[in-house]
UniProtKB/TrEMBL annotation, chain A:
Keywords: Membrane, Transmembrane, Transmembrane helix. This is Uncharacterized protein. The keyword Membrane applies. It comes from Sulfurimonas paralvinellae. The chain crosses the membrane at residues 12-36, 48-73, 85-107, 113-133, 145-167, 187-207, 219-238, 244-265, 277-300, 306-330, 362-379, 385-408. The keyword Ubl conjugation does not apply.
């Protein structure tokens, strides 16, 4: 287990834009669901690709980058190499994401520009993280996961840029192969391994768990890394065997990760079901559901199951994993900056006082119903269910942003 | 020279902002003693090794003990053995955490 220090943490004003912009992209992603047609749903449609980039780039990556800006120096116990670079990172990621989404929907010629801006943003992020890690003398498992995930991000954005150039007709490439490498590098390699590494810091911290072995996590990260590398290899060298080996290794890694989370939850002293705990329970249930749907896809080879699996994995697992942690991370950061200097001098709020109960619960209820309805809409190709689900998701996203702004402005 | 109970009482003003209870109620303060010169030694733990407020909580404990008259030095030793568990907390804490 690692020791955590706040001594090197950046100021909240540097982190806050990542969360606020991420929240607004979360709303935009739910609005994009309204544009999707359940009857002719394919993962290559511009609307689906736009939704994916709004959600993954705008919400997931933006929020993870903000969290990493805070957590990396805290976990590594060294200061950032260049903390001011994070002002450029969120600005470029915001502009690049909007350009890309607009490009997918209306003007493919914008894609290389959007891709290039996103590339620069991510390159700055990856470079900054690598240079920060370089200051560390000895890597532990969590630090190693940061290093591995950022290496995959580096390759993921290169593949994404090549795809953007190909979409615009600048170069000629097999886009479907490059897409596989891009998706696997970014989602499995970066987002997946980042969540694995950081959740083993955050989940025990918030549940007060300890005394568990990290071996399952070590196995899980190793298998996922090998799986992602194998899929990338299959795309680059056109070897089908490597692709299926990669899928197998990635799937194999999930039970090990799920096992360590199960152990943490089973042994947690803190058993109250606050918004964080129920969000995590839904997120991990969604991960299992996505796993099941993916198995059905491989058994039946029907694309709706793959789309439903990806949907549940994105909005159910990533979405709730992130929103749940926001209800812990933002109150802590605001409390740390605004109230910790007043300890012993005046009455100050507890972290739980800073979480708006009603809007956080509304967010949870609306978003869970939305995720379930859209999943059934994808499987049954029902337009009515899809728009009903999107409406729930939109209200959930609005409640989430309302909660977030309440916590950020808490006085 | 202060008794263990007097030092514990001073430390009981330090609240864990995440859990909302004081460190003594949570069972995080294992031992405390003082000598005639005003040197106080506190042995304590934290609810998790990954506590982001590690340094800050130690500072709060130090400041709380220093408020006792004639205290000169406060030495805080953080130990992980025995590891904290919920059975060390008092009943109010257990109830609040759902344990």
């Amino acid at each position: 287990m690692m020791k955590i220090s706040q001594d090197f943490a950046p100021p909240f004003k540097l982190i806050a834009p990542f969360f606020i912009i991420g929240g607004f992209f979360y709303i935009l992603a739910t609005l994009a669901v309204f544009l999707v047609h359940a009857q002719d749903l394919v993962y290559t449609s511009p609307v689906v690709i736009s939704f994916t980039h709004l959600f993954l780039l705008g919400f997931v990556m933006m929020t993870i980058f903000g969290a990493m800006a805070q957590l990396v120096p805290v976990v590594l116990e060294v200061g950032h190499f260049g903390v001011e670079l994070f002002y450029a990172i969120w600005t470029l990621l915001l502009i690049g994401t909007l350009l890309m989404v607009f490009g997918f929907l209306y003007s493919p010629a914008l894609l290389p520009y959007g891709g290039m801006v996103v590339l620069i943003s991510m390159m700055i992020f990856v470079g900054e993280i690598f240079l920060t890690i370089k200051k560390v003398k000895k890597l532990n498992l969590v630090m190693s996961s940061v290093l591995i995930s950022n290496t995959f991000l580096f390759f993921g954005i290169i593949f994404g840029l090549l795809m953007a150039l190909s979409y615009a007709g600048t170069i000629s490439l097999d886009i479907s192969q490059m897409l596989r490498a891009h998706v696997y590098s970014v989602i499995g390699g970066y987002i997946g391994i980042t969540i694995m590494g950081l959740s083993i810091v955050l989940v025990p911290m918030f549940t007060l768990s300890h005394s568990f072995s990290l071996t399952p996590l070590r196995i899980s990260i190793t298998l996922m890394s090998m799986g992602v590398a194998s899929v990338i290899g299959s795309a680059l060298f056109d070897v089908e065997f490597l692709e299926y080996l990669g899928y197998f290794l990635s799937f194999l890694s999930l039970p090990f990760y799920f096992y360590i989370i199960y152990i943490i939850y089973k042994t947690r002293p803190r058993k109250e079901n606050d918004i964080y705990a129920i969000s995590m329970m839904f997120a991990y249930s969604a991960m299992l559901a996505a796993f099941f749907l993916a198995i059905v896809y491989f058994a039946l080879h029907k694309e709706v199951f793959l789309l439903a699996s990806a949907w549940v994995f994105f909005f159910g697992f990533f979405g709730f994993m992130i929103t749940g942690h926001i209800y812990k991370i933002i109150p802590f950061l605001v409390w740390f900056e605004r109230f910790s200097p007043l300890v012993g001098k005046q009455k100050i709020p507890m972290l739980v006082d800073m979480v708006p109960q009603r809007s956080s619960q509304a967010q949870f209820v609306f978003s869970t119903v939305g995720v379930v309805l859209v999943t059934f809409a994808i499987l049954t190709k029902s337009e009515t269910l899809l728009h009903g689900g999107a409406s729930f998701l939109l209200f959930g996203a609005l409640a989430f942003v309302r909660s977030m702004l309440y916590m950020i402005n808490f006085k | 020279m202060y008794t263990k109970e007097e030092i514990f009482k001073a430390i009981s003003t330090v609240i864990d902002p995440e859990v909302g209870f004081n460190l003594v109620e949570m069972g995080l303060i294992y031992d405390a003693s003082s000598d005639d010169e005003g040197n106080v030694k506190v042995t304590m733990t934290l609810s998790t090794k990954a506590c982001p407020l590690h340094q800050m909580i130690l500072q709060w404990v130090k400041e709380a003990v220093e408020k006792l008259p004639d205290v000169k030095e406060v030495d805080i030793e953080v130990v992980w053995e025995p590891e904290w568990n919920i059975s060390m907390a008092d009943d109010n804490v257990k109830k609040a955490l759902g344990a």
